[in-house]
Design goal:
mainly beta, 5-stranded antiparallel β-sheet, 1 helix, 12% helix, 34% strand
């Protein structure tokens, strides 16, 4: 079980209907009501060719699409994500 599946399984058991996973990139896929909310953001690790997740805040980047404020990186070097690639998904903890 990967970490995305593990998080979803935990939430289904402990807090059903409390998450939204957005896998597509771009402004049109993210409702404005999610702006300024915290999320788990998945992207490419800066330490190699594999994924990594961090805590981020979704920002409104205007016509350029979505942007994220870095909040917390659980890895000790706190280098967050490799921004040369777009994010893979973000998961919000709120009523959907």
């Amino acid at each position: 079980c990967g970490y995305e599946q593990g998080i979803q399984q935990y939430l289904q058991e402990k807090a059903p209907n409390k998450y939204k996973c957005i896998k597509k990139k771009g402004r049109d896929e993210v409702p404005k009501s999610y702006f300024n909310n915290l999320c788990i953001l998945r992207g490419k690790s800066p330490r190699g060719d594999f994924g990594h997740v961090v805590i981020a805040r979704l920002l409104d980047a205007g016509k350029d699409g979505t942007a994220f404020e870095r909040i917390f990186d659980p890895h000790p070097d706190a280098t967050f994500l490799d921004e040369s690639e777009e994010f893979g998904w973000c998961m919000f903890f709120r009523e959907v």
